[in-house]
Amino acid sequence: xxxxxxxxxxxxxxxxxxxxxxxxxxxxxxxxxxxxxxxxxxxxxxxxxxxxxxxxxxxxxxxxxxxxxxxxxxxxxxxxxxxxxxxxxxxxxxxxxxxxxxxxxxxxxxxxxxxxxxxxxxxxxxxxxxxxxxxxxxxxxxxxxxxxxxxxxxxxxxxxxxxxxxxxxxxxxxxxxxxxxxxxxxxxxxxxxxxxxxxxxxxxxxxxxxxxxxxxxxxxxxxxxxxxxxxxxxxxxxxxxxxxxxxxxxxxxxxxxxxxxxxxxxxxxxxxxxxxxxxxxxxxxxxxxxxxxxxxxxxxxxxxxxxxxxxxxxxxxxxxxxxxxxxxxxxxxxxxxxxxxxxxxxxxxxxxxxxxxxxxxxxxxxxxxxxxxxxxxxxxxxxxxxxxxxxxxxxxxxxxxxxxxxxxxxxxxxxxxxxxxxxxxxxxxxxxxxxxxxxxxxxxxxxxxxxxxxxxxxxxxxxxxxxxxxxxxxxxxxxxxxxxxxxxxxxxxxxxxxxxxxxxxxxxxxxxxxxxxxxxxxxxxxxxxxxxxxxxxxxxxxxxxxxxxxxxxxxxxxxxxxxxxxxxxxxxxxxxxxxxxxxxxxxxxxxxxxxxxxxxxxxxxxx
Length: 607
Ligand code: ADP
Description:
It is a single chain. The chain is of the alpha/beta class and 607 residues long. The protein has helices at 19-28, 31-64, 69-122, 125-130, 133-175, 181-224, 226-231, 235-262, 265-285, 291-301, 305-332, 392-399, 422-427, 443-447, 456-465, 469-474, 492-506, 522-536, 548-553, 571-577, 579-585, 597-606, and strands at residues 353-360, 369-376, 381-385, 407-412, 415-416, 429-432, 510-514, 540-544, 556-561, 564-569. 63% of the residues lie in helices and 9% in strands. Mean pLDDT is 87; it is low at 589-607. The strands form two sheets. Strands 6-7-8-3-9-10 form a six-stranded mixed β-sheet, sandwiched between helices. The protein has two domains: 19-332, ABC transporter type 1, transmembrane domain (ABC transporter transmembrane region fold, Up-down Bundle); 341-428 and 541-595, P-loop containing nucleotide triphosphate hydrolases (Rossmann fold), CATH 3.40.50.300. Adenosine-5'-diphosphate (ADP) binds at residues 129, 362, 368, 386, 388-394.
């Protein structure tokens, strides 16, 4: 079982050892559909192969009854009815093949999508940090779709045309055993050509899918950064970059098409038809075959037209599907560094937090935090201060075990966070980041995101405490106002207060606030301040801040600089003892380029 951060809803396991095995393990679950598809394909080919036999016999019977027109007419009618009957049957069987293949394709696509989505949600933040959203989107949409197309029309046609290769092998000996030669040679040559094509095609298909991922990741980034691009007037350059990627994608597509075009089963078909006809005529001249048999056999060979025509398309569709499967598997199989630790410690949290010689880096070769040690009792209000890039956000993320430490330990209530049940740990910690994310749902649903069944009263109570109630009731639909994508209709300060209401409703024991919002007018700042104070009451609170009022309010201050905890203590003591701290708050003129304008100016404003 793969390690994941939550239990995915699907109840069966898939074989993730190779793309083909993985797709097969999804398809296997729908074996009755596979059976029906095979039955339809084989039945279709065998009944269609029987038609030349009937026509040949009709030919012979007609020749024998030519002297007697009424007899000839009756014979003709009988055979005509038989041919019509076989065609009807064939139509039904073909529909059966198509219908079951299409149903199978839709079901497998759904299952694959479920598995992929669940896996994405179960991946750690370390995983999501590394991968561009556009790349994930490409895989979750078009690659999943390719798996569908791989079954229908892809595999449906592969199976269908495979049956059309078998039918002549089955019927030819009935005309004359020697006539088996041509179909056998055709089938052998056909597969030779096919394997050669697939061998060349598979890596190219993979490239095609890969470039599509790159292209869509780029597009996603452009759409995401639209404002920046416009402000810096970089539209031209972005268009050029996208065009260059689109060209590379096109070139790869053309390589794929060239390989497909070099696959010439039609020429092979021409040879088979010519050779087969000559062979049958020779047997006729030797008196070993009737004229009707010659006619029947030559039209039997026509069955090869179907595989010759569709195989190029059908097999490359399968190749594309396998390429997509391997791209999906790449993420599914990526090791998750964290797991949910279902049997881990789960208890109501008090909120005591301790770091013991913690080292951490996002990459193995670079530590962002060095040897951090501190301990705060439950209920402490902790301010984390330091210049930008000092590691403040990183430090607080370790508390909720968004990432695992490289060395040392983070303890909550004296228990290593790695020994906590991940769900129990995180559900008792609320984290409000600088960039508050609101979903495209109503405000009420956004506030209740962590407690979906909260009552309207509870939601409003939380909103009041977070100082956002008055703002919300001014919106036309009040709490039912739907937030635009990313909450763009709300200001930064309003979004932050919605997040505070959300946190209050979730009733965590530890509250983490990454409160770097600067440039807020003082009325709003005052509101946010009050919101924070009331939501934080009675909880261990970590607040990353530059505001002196919040720092004064804190019981304990951690001073970080370049990944090290350079000092900790109370405001007055730190002012006396810590140079970095003094530089941040008292000596703006002396501060280097790393200092934050807001940090150094706010004390003056507040003083
Ligand atoms: P602060 O909150 O003090 O500004 P951060 O904790 O955000 O500092 O960042 C500390 C260092 O870690 C910075 O050098 C930053 O570039 C790096 N960093 C932050 N987040 C990531 C991430 N997801 N992946 C890689 N590096 C990161």
